[in-house]
Amino acid sequence: MGKPAATDRPRLTPLSHSFTLDWVITCKSVAEARAALAAATRILERLGVRLNPQKTRIVHIQQGFDFLGYRMVRASGKSKLSRSTIQRWNPKGLIAYPTRKSIRRFRDRVRMLTRRSAQRKTAALIEELNPTLRGWAEYYKRAHVRTLFHKLDGWIVRRIWSHRFRRWRTRGWIQLPKAKLYAEFGLVNLISLIPSLGSHSCLRASS
After folding, report:
1. What are the contacts of 100-108 at 24+ separation with CB within 8 A?
2. Alpha helices, DSSP H only, in 23-69?
């Protein structure tokens, strides 16, 4: 076979790429943070990239900030965890937990899947629901989520009862107890996915 003529060769066209990069710079003072921001701006401009002014700001860790679906903040006296416990995890006393937006989107997704008008049996409902529960919990399971996961587990069970019996206030705990949902139907138990609580929580949920 001969070499293709120039007119037969595929024509290459330039591609335009866009991307988003989220990052955090930690500093010891406001002056240091401003200098770091200025340096980052100069470096990125050389690469043809600009910082988003609406999403770029300097904050003190006591105020906290949102990053990749997490709320990062230094523990205050209001935290339910003792400072010594937090500092075992992080010498700086920082904690992270899901943002309100992330929790709201998760609950909206669960509501949509468990709406009463959805015509499916409980087993099929749980099978469709589980990937959402597991995916969200796996992402946040190492954060400060024990109380949150416990509350959400109870709410999810009530959503399933509401779907099954077509009303919010039901006697589902008698006809479809939690133990049956977890053991027989395989409903994902959020709190059992927390590494330090997994085995204990599974036993408690199925008791």
Report:
1. 100/71, 101/66, 101/69, 102/69, 102/136, 102/140, 103/148, 106/132, 106/136, 106/152, 107/152, 107/155
2. 30-46
Three-class DSSP category at 134: helix
**179 burial via Cβ count (<10 Å: 0-12, 13-18, 19+):** exposed
- How does residue 159 score in pLDDT terms, banded at 50, 70 and 90? very high
Helix (H) / strand (E) containing 77: none
In order of 27, 108, 191, the CA distances from 45 in angstroms are 22, 39, 45
pLDDT of 157 over the 90 cut: yes
Is a pLDDT exceeding 90 seen at residue 44? no
Q: What pTM did the predictor assign?
A: 0.73
DSSP 3-state assignment of 15? coil
